[in-house]
User: What shape does this take?
Amino acid sequence: MLSIRNLNKRYGRFQAVSELNLDVPEGEIFGFVGPNGAGKTTTMKIICGLLRATSGEITLDGVDIIRNSRRMKEKIGYMPDFFGVYDDLKVNEYLEFYASIYNIKGQERKRITDDLLELVDLGSKREAYVDSLSRGMKQRLCLARSLVHNPRLLVLDEPASGMDPRARFEMKEILKNLKGMGKTIIISSHILPELAELCTSIGIIDQGRMVISGSNEEIMQQVYNKKVVRLKVRDRLDDAVLILKEYPFVDKLVIGENTIQAGFGGGDGEMSRVLSDLINRGIPVVSFAQMDGNLEDVFMKVTKGDDEQ
Amino acid sequence: MNINPVLLKELKVRMRGWKAAGIIALYLLVLTVVAVFIIYTTFMDPYSSNIDPQVSIGAYTALAVFQFMLIMFIVPALTAGAISGEREKQTLDLVLCTRLKPISIITGKLFASTSQTLLLIIASFPLFSMVFLFGGISIKEVMQLFGFYIVTAVTIGCIGIFFSAHLKRTTASTVFTYGTLAFLAFGTIFIGVFYIRIFYNWDYNKFLPILYSNPLTGFGSLLAEQFGYYGGINAFLGLSAGSGQNPNAANAISPWLGNIIFDIVLSAVLLILSAARINPVRKSIFSYIRFRGRKKKKASDSI
Ligand SMILES: Nc1ncnc2c1ncn2[C@@H]1O[C@H](COP(=O)(O)OP(=O)(O)O)[C@@H](O)[C@H]1O
Ligand SMILES: [Mg+2]
Assistant: This one.
């Protein structure tokens, strides 16, 4: 349905997105994961016609989005990573305003507004001023806003960020609902586990490049198939890095202040071999342990791995 | 017909409750007090007879000047934040990602933010009409004055919108809007005087073209003509251009009419530039040049 080819975006000299490729088939929920500043918002804004790409091609159902920006905007719903609500409007007036932009009138407008408020569980707040809503409610209202024109593609930029666990759970339920309604959704996050259960496919972006992408299962496999070992030293961090790099089964080093995190391909035998080697060569090791296969750490491995090798 | 949704939404908010009606009532009260005061003091003048049209002309001029000042001072404050305010509230992207055209957003914002002023102007119409009960002023002249008001208000609004669309901050936009207005009102006069003093070759019977952009001279000439007196502007500049009998001045287009034409052209240009500014996917000449430059560089690299 959505297809991005060789997308590039430069802000002046700074390359925010480079040679990005992406395919999202109809009905998928695509998780767009990357650390802050990776280029997620930039990519999403380009999809929604809010930013001009430096080069590249984006098509929706085979139609060029960049050239048919206004027509394509009718098919895309965008929820930005900030609220953007008019404080002096009531909740229903807020939705009716966006509905009026799409020429939805009279009874139909009222029906759509009511349905959407029901969907995001704000039915009881119809007459409340937007100003008086809690953060989570405002976020849900923004989601409802992005749905007024019944778009086929939803672009949600970090919809769960800054939410407490309960609000996050509610947002997830709503998104599952939307998935059931057959919407195609792109959803971004800087935390992978947040999306793991929701998405059908996942792409990981770092420094403007798509590092890996694939179905949920594929990504999770890649992410889980290796151990992650965390080493803490008192001193001589650089020497420890050099030693670790001698081993072919150690890769994707992430170097902290006095810690090293590394992907580890071997078994327990190899682990003890590396440890005794480090100690024999005089590295003041404080701790050396295997981390449990926590997604977030592995995500760090995936995204940071390249520049350390 | 579809009313601009941005305009409709803003009117709904602005006209909510009693505030809008209260402001209009208060404004009319102030105008009435001004008019009554002028009429009263003129009546008290022992040298004038009771049915002197001088009375109505005095009141008319006072009201006209008062309302004109109001437009000059209030419209910049109301419009300079129209787009930058949306940007600061982060709501601009939310309308830009809809099917609404940038020019509709701009015109919706323009008329929404000038709506209160336009409403005040229109509400004061009956009061101005009262003045011609005393004679000396015709309904046609009141209509002319109001046409001039509306064009001036909308033009100042366009200047405010223009800076609001081009500058990030509302404060900066406000400063530039008042600055531009000050330039049009006073800067153009300085330039005119400067030009005459330097070159000494000014034909005193002609009107300085730069002053067509000046709202004050436009307004002044409108009132002067209404009082049957055509030398208004050049007199304003300290150039004794003679009186209404001057044939050259009569042949040239009236300063106020010239000002209206200038305003309409300027407004259209500013609106188009503002719409282009907020359009996120507009083609930029600069990016096109850079793109071509890079291609050339690549070609030379491969040689
Ligand atoms: N308007 C801009 N001008 C210059 N640099 C920008 C601009 N917007 C974003 N960037 C930079 O582009 C990079 C990607 O930003 P963004 O797409 O917002 O990342 P993400 O949403 O993944 O956190 C960041 O390094 C950011 O600083
Ligand atoms: Mg972001």
